[in-house]
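Sanity check

After download, print the first record. It should look like this:
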Amino acid sequence: MQFLRSLSGRFLILTVIFVMLAEILIFVPSIARFRQEFLMDRLDRAQIASLALLADDQISADLQEELLFNAGVYNVVLRRDEARQLVLSAPLPSAISETYDLRDPTPITLIQDSLRFLMQPDDEIIRVIGEPSNMGGLLIEVTVDSAPLRAAMLDYGLRILVLSAVISVVTAALLFLAVRGFLVKPIRRVVGHMKVYAEAPDDARRIIEPSSTTTEILQAEEALKSMQQQLTASLKQRERLAQLGGAVAKISHDLRNILTSAQLFTDRIEMSEDPAVKRMAPKLVNSITRAVHLCESTLAYGKAEEQAPTLSRFMLIDIVSDVIESERLAVGDADVSFGEDIPATLELRGDSEQIYRVISNLVRNARQAIVNTGSPGEIVISAEETPESWEICVSDTGPGLPAKAKEHLFQPFQGGATKGGTGLGLSIAAELIRGHGGTLDLELSDETGTTFRISMPRGEVSAA
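Expected structure tokens:
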């Protein structure tokens, strides 16, 4: 059973079947041709016997019987000069049952007559009509016994079938060996390489080297090599990311402790009577609080335990104002202006800290892109509320994203929007919005500027 399930075994069986079918298609016209030649031979013999009688019409009965026996017929009727003459005759054992005319028959007629003849199991007397050879008359007609003809046809058919079986077996064996050599062995080699590579996919020495001389197998080996190279590179990158994540977790742990101490100092700063300090202190406290939360989130992420967003109602204008105030401080001497188009009553349901991080990442990227050009620019944050969702857009008049950044936009360490960027900001932003059931999409990016759209669904997910 295992052999029949293999490719070479099934190919062997199919080859035998197809060759036998081809031989059967050849057998039918062959047996029809054999029957025609057999009957034509009887007509020729009968003609020769009749010519002997015509040469000397005073032959004995014994000689006449011998002529008929040698011709294999019971009687011979020859038409010469428009006269139909019974030349040789002998008593018929039974009545004539069928008449076959061999004067210019069609192939279909010969095949039908042959098949019908083989299907008839009883011996019978048949009449055969043909044309004499070598212009020996207008018509020759003989009566013969069907038994010798049927026996000869069966013997011929059996020899054809045996020969067909031998040809099928030999052909199938040769094709079997060819398939094993040119197809099965290369496939087994590819499968072997896959198994060896699966044992240690990070070992570049196990990557297959294409060497097949068959075009299709070579293409499969080249595709496998490309896939293995990409997988090996991805595994190495993940290993480096895992190591980097461990280092970041350690740094975040210590940084959280430092920022916690800084929080204690800001509590004292808030007691100052200086108006400027009173105005800036709350923003400083909020920034340090957010930094502490970020460190805690980083530690949780390093443990693969990042928390889901804590949903609550908040005013979007407050978040946007904090982001713009922070970015204005970071602009310095650059000519970058900020604008907002946020309805004062627009209230979102989500995690305010995470939404702050998303908008802050987008605005920071836009500000850095404009500053790097050395030209004036503007960043606008707008929002609207629809019956289905909250839509937030962050637009800038910067130079647009590079082609590489567009290709790997939300992939960490590959989609950096600015020179020297890691692409982590957009990756984190997209992940945070997905946690809210929404999407972060690049809506526009060309020489006129860039626009990102945040879409957050308003409805809650039903249990149904």
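If your output differs, re-run the checksum step. Summary of this record's structure: The chain has a mean pLDDT of 78.
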